[in-house]
Amino acid sequence: MGYIKYIYVFLVSINFIVCAYLENIPVKLTQPDGTLINCLTSGDEYYHYLHDNLGYTILQNQEDGFYYYAIKNNDNLRPSIYLVNSINPENVGLEKKVMISRDEYKLRRNLYWEDVEYRDAPTLGTVNNLNVFIRFDGEEEFPNSRTYYDIPFNDSDGPSMLHYFEEVSYNLLTVNTFHYPDCDPSINISYQDEYPRDYYKPYNQETNPIGYENDNQARSREHVLLKNAIDFISGDVPEDLDIDSNNDGYVDNVTFLVRGIPGAWADLLWPHRWALYSEEAYINGSRVYDYNLNLEQGGYFTVGTLCHEFFHSLGAPDLYHYWDDVAPVAVGGWDVMDASSDTPQSMTAYMKYKYTDWITDLPVLTDGGTYEINPLSNPINNIYRINSPISNEYFVVEYRVKEGIYEVNTPGGDNGILIYRVNDSLNGNADGPPDELYLYRPNGTLNSSGSFAGAPFSSSLERTEFNDGTNPNCFLSDGSPGGINISNISDSNETMSFDLVNLILLAEFEGLTFDLDQDGVANPGEEVLYDFSISNLSNGINAQSIIATIATSTENVSIVNPVIDFGNINFNNQEVTSLIINLDQDTFGEVDFNVSIDAEYSEGIQDLFYNEEFNFNIEVSLNQSGFPYSTLNEVRSSPIISDLDLNGEYELIFGDHFGLIHAINETGNPVLTDVFPIDTGGQVWGSPAMADIDNDGFDDIVFSSKSKSIFGIDKDGVKFITETNSQLIGTPSICNLDSDSELEILIAGYTNNQQNLWVLNHDGTSSINFNFVSNEKNKSGFSVADFNNNNLDDLVFGTDSKNLYLVYDDGTIADGFPFESDGRFRVSPIIVDYLDQKIIIAPSENNTVYAISSEGSVIFDIPFSSRVTTSPSVLNYNNMLIIFVGLNDGSIYGFDLSGNILYEFDIDGGVVGSIVFSDMNYDSYPDIIASSDLGKVYLFNIDGQIFQNFPITYEFPNSSSPLIYDINQDFDLEIIGGSSNSVYAIDYKSNGNNNEYWYLYKGDNLRTGYYKFDCYAGDLDQNNIINILDVISIVNIIINESNLDDYELCQVDLNSDGSINVLDVITMTNIILDF
Which residue, of 169, 338, 467, 791, has the fewest CB within 10 Å? Predict the structure, then answer.
């Protein structure tokens, strides 16, 4: 076929030159089976798309006509296998807002520009606009009278297009609209096309065989439709009506009002301005060329839309970004060409100056002094230009007042001065950033839109300054300083005033130069030094007697040198000194500083005084130097530590949702860059497993990927890639399933009706010695241990089919299994080997944790009030095994092997990944580490006491289990984990101990999920020595007939006969004598 296989209900109208951007417009679709779908459409006529209320893109499949969630494959959009509303798209790993690339968007948009001669309607005098009503074959007439439709165009008291342009043009432009076909005002008639609405929808062989099949056909159908409508009404237009006021042979402007709402056919007809260049139509000898197209229903037929589109006809470009909705909005609701409301606000003074003849002078301010400015509603003295001394970009100043029926619709509720950045080499903001026009507002940066409501400056708003050190600062398009200084902005009255100060001093904290432990991070309790500089950015003005006064309101932070004398700094020069700060142990997070700069300078014959205030902050944290390490996407993969190349330095290795496998060092720098990052081609959800699988003396690391492939990696790169037919989202396990000398790899799959279990040899080939087949979906992977005492590992895993399996190394299912629950097993079970009794601990989505014997019987179960979200973890505390789990309500529970709950803690947010343990402060007591989906990392001791400076909160939700390790080998431990945007590493400033703790996900690098507990027979006083003291202890036990628990019995019953008697004393004595 000559058209794309999958019709994108939102893609094909890419032909238009200027457009209206609309968001979240309700659309009802009908599946071929009659199922109704309520969804939304967003975009402009270049590119708009269907999506659900969560942002997941929707496509119609050309082959069967059904609507599916969309996926992107090699930059091509395709329908997935999931019908809309058949699943929760998040649960199956779909991505939100998958769209064509920016380059493709621009290519499609630009494709038709070369065919269009751009014309603008006159901006002075009278323009008589012609409005033509259109409906499709089989549709009823417009439901309202001609008077009803005339009001938004011609109401003399407003709001209307006529009234709006008279007001914003200072009565220099009158826009009258005449409606056709001509009829009595009490009724309405329209041109009815010969084709039905479906003719203007995309082709689909199942649902719309008469639709258009490509862009050229879409363009042709629209132009023929409009030409036929013009031919139909041309005789109604009086010859004495001036429709070509500038005598250029073209009708000044025509608007078409189309019956109905866009709906699923809107890809051809969307509110826009374009040109009728492929067909010729005339009215009274003048050619119809430029036109605006509007929709009658669905929120499109408003005064705001009419005025936005007509301002296009006058030559004004759009000020919103056509494609990049990630970059900050440029102007927002302060200009009708960016974000217009139903009743529009004015365009800015700059847009009037640049694109109309209503403001003809843009005064450039060069000398320092005080200047007055009138409100934008005043036709004179309403705009100033201030050049940047650093760039060809410049700044414009205007004064906006909440008045009339239009300006009251600007953001917020305040009057005041607005300041813009201008790059007049551009035409609008459509392809931005960079933008032709950008409005400064609080917290607006290169990455944040900030607050448009807070944009006005005035003294009553306590916003009186604008320079390189204020919020917002006068940054240029590339983020560099703009180098202007406006101060002493007055209150908002009939006029406003401001001072232009040409002395420009820039104060900066330039970086940490010293901290006590020299890790490059300001930590609680340290004395730190920062480089503090003042630069004179002025053009030819020298500054004298410069004094900087630094203060902070943060408690327990002291500044050693709060007043610094910088002396004199000539223009284009900088002075740097050190700022010394003492931080208390309780100081944590951002510490704010206020810097007041006083100076003297001369301009002309005047001696002037300068005062400016700057605000800075420093971050006091426990971050490991170089962390958080930004990935710009989610890291569910719990990292692993290795010395891959055996150079004595550790690598931190993890995967991310972009499908990349990273290797970074202790300072967050990429390492082994000839190998890493490795692109797996699909998201990585599971954690890596590591061991020397092939016995070559080097670590091997195994990853699974949603690309359906398994990756084996070592220091030299990818050793093998094994392809499967299933999505792989679980964590691999490394184990011994046969009698050879190498280890095997276990991988779980997560696809319906497919093989979902693979056993690989060390080289990635399939093992022929394991014959178990599973078609049940396994989300989390396996745990392994030797259940049948043959020195080979056996498999434990749960499935979405609510089954828990124990499978022996020969592929047979153990008697008593599968264990069946009424909830899915979606987090990994673990195996506890307590005194040679193996117990499976398995959380189920029915909010229950099961303890299952090796025979498949329930030893105990614990119901909880919320879902268990973590794989269980094991803590040996005073020779008692305690199992910890976390819940999605933030609860953490610890219970013994009899099912008794011994510990309960609460954290803020759902518990993520797995709970881990270490002795973080080397006090011989275990500490508990947990992270939450609110970005918080907790560290508390076994009694529940939270450590100082914890919880530590990060900007993004945590998404992986923490790892505890001394990655920089300085004897203190780091807490390392993944978030939705980065990998964090917390450097806890105390010697710690990881030995014999469950300190990482699944308990070990092989990800076996296995914990073995043995008693130390004979060492009753647990001092690691069997001696006469232990003999005395056993004698006392016999004499007192003490009741012993299982662990104590294991220690004392040295001959394993089940009785404690003199024979055990003799055995112990012999042990001592033999030693």
Answer: 791
DSSP code for 409: G
**Mean of the pLDDT values across residues 708-712?**
96
**pTM score over 0.70:** no
Question: How many CB atoms neighbour CB 1045 within 10 A?
Answer: 9
Q: Kindly state the tokens that stand for 415.
A: 């009057």
If you write DSSP's letter for every residue of 101-126 in order, what string do you get? -HHHHHHHHHTTGGG-------SSEE
Residue 103 has a pLDDT of 73
Mean pLDDT of 867-881: 94
For residues 736-757, average pLDDT: 90
- 87 forms beta bridges with none
Residue 987 bridge partners (DSSP): 974
Cα–Cα dist 621/605, whole Å: 50
Q: Per residue in 783-818, is it b (16+ CB within 10 Å) or e — as a string?
A: bbbbbeeeebbbbbbbbbebbbbbbbbeeeebeebb
97: left (phi over 0), alpha (psi -120 to 50) or beta: left
**812, 929, 995 from 831: Cα distances, Å:** 19, 21, 20
Alpha-carbon torsion (825, 826, 832, 838), positive or negative: positive
Nearest alpha-carbon partner for 564 in 527, 609, 596, 529: 596
pLDDT, tens only, 368-398: 888 999 999 999 999 999 999 889 999 999 9
Least reliable range by pLDDT among 662-676, 932-946, 1020-1034: 1020-1034
For residue range 901-929, what is the model confidence (pLDDT) as tens digits? Answer: 999 999 999 999 999 999 999 999 999 99
CB 77 within 8 A of CB 59: yes
**pLDDT for residue 15:** 29
**What element of type H or E holds 850?**
strand 848-853
Instruction: State whether residue 303 is helix, strand or coil.
Output: helix
Sort strands 794-798 and 803-807 into parallel, antiparallel or unpaired: antiparallel
For residues 653 and 206, the model is more confident at 653
398, with CB counted inside 10 A (0-12, 13-18, 19+), is buried
Cα(1018)–Cα(1065) distance, rounded to whole angstroms?
Answer: 10
Contacting residues for 185 by C-beta, under 8 A, at least 6 apart: 145, 146, 147, 150
Q: Is 552 helix (H, G, I), strand (E, B) or coil?
A: coil
Round to whole Å and give the CA distance between 505 and 596: 11
d(CA 165, CA 157): 12
Helix (H/G/I), strand (E/B), else coil: 1070 = helix
Two tokens at 623?
């971050």
State how beta strands 290-295 and 254-258 pair.
parallel
Tokens of 648: 């004595």
Percent of the chain at pLDDT exceeding 90: 69
Pick from 889, 959, 902: nearest CA to 928: 902
pLDDT digits (tens, 9 = 90+) for 602-620: 887 778 888 888 889 999 9
Whether 111 shows a pLDDT value over 80: the answer reads no
Backbone angles phi, psi at 963, to 5 degrees: -125, 135
> How many Å apart are CA 743 and CA 861, to the nearest integer?
34
- Whether the CB-CB separation of 305 and 268 falls below 8 Å is answered with no
What angle is formed at CA 74 by the lines to CA 70 and CA 75, rounded to 5 degrees? 65
CB neighbour burial string for 899-911, b if at least 16 within 10 angstroms, e if fewer: eeeebebebebbb
| Higher-pLDDT residue of 28, 437 | 437
Question: 709 — phi, psi (to 5°)?
Answer: -125, 155
Amino acid at position 750, single letter? Y
Torsion of CA 950, 955, 958, 964, to 10 degrees: -50
CA triplet 134, 139, 142: central angle to 5 degrees?
Answer: 55
Spatial neighbors of 450 by CB under 8 A, at least 6 apart, are 328, 441, 442, 443, 444, 472
Q: Are strands 982-991 and 629-630 parallel, antiparallel or unpaired?
A: antiparallel
Mean pLDDT of the 806-826 span: 96
pLDDT of 116 > 70? The answer is no
